[in-house]
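Margin note from the TA: students keep mixing up input and output lines. Inputs are the sequences; the output is the structure of the whole complex. Example:
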Amino acid sequence: MVTVLTERGVVEGVEGDGSGDALWISTSEVEGATGWALKPEGLCLNDLCTPVPPGHESQFVRDDSHGDGAVNVAAFWRRMERPALHDGTGSVWMLGEPASSRAAQLESLQAPDFTLPDLDGKLHSLSDHRGKKVFLTTWASW
Amino acid sequence: MDLPVWQELYADVQDDNFMVIAVAMDSRGAEAARPWIEEAKAEYVCVIDPEHHVADLYNMVNVPQAVWIDESGQIVRPTEASGTNEGFREMDRTTFAMPEKQMQRAQNDRSVYVSALRDWASKGADSEFAWDADEVRSRMQAPSDDVAWANANFRLGQYLRQQGNVAEGDGFLQEAIRLRPESWNFWRQTADLEEVGKSGGPEFWARVDALGDDYYYAPVEMPGMSE
């Protein structure tokens, strides 16, 4: 079982195995854990797909004699030039967003949305305030 | 702290088409931020961001930094200091007293910035302080790959700390600082997690001094700001 951190949040108890640089996740659980799904075209987020490089199939996908096979999500992440890192036990993985997607988002000028809790735990999204001018500012107690 | 300044502005503008969202970059969570929010009697949106997600999205390195976003969700002023300047570097480091000249400079710059916000709140795109698309893009900084890796390290370190795995988590926080030394958010937050108060202690001042002629807060590009 592994814990997967992505931009979408934290998913614990994912059927998978992290060892060394590999993070094998049970094929049926990949989408729930990461938002990306294994399709014939490769690992896909909606219509955006990263194909398995020919000749390197065994490093990216595997069939199991039982169950539904597994996907090496870390290998895909590296291929997409996205940050992938893990704790010392390989049971907690951070699958990050690449600089290129952050840059493209900013370049579009559309303010990236986010959802965060207030003091009472109530969630607020930037997009709740569409239709208003928003002064988005930061501070810290430290 | 700036929260009362934004509350005064928010109460003054009294326009349903203007909102303030103040994001607390506080890895210690809501309880660390609560006293300031309550004291400011903030009526605008105050959210807590233990993982510094907003700084990741908007490529921020310090507090206070801000972004102006129009009714359609478009950025009209990209990440910049919220009307603060370098004057704090001359404060007395034991009494925190500021020289008179720097006090005036801080007040001037904050007042110029708040006036600009008022102008934008009332005039929208016609405000001289709201930039067009080309002007915004020319002032944006795109994150590097090191920044993306720094953000991933910070997030993992923060998660491990929350799980009680403090020593290992700290290792990832230190790696985030190494990859992005220009982020005061990473350094000061990590110092604060080690020990409350350390983020403004002797090591902080040593880092500020090491800047030399480099900026802590890049100048805000706005008529009337002090040099």
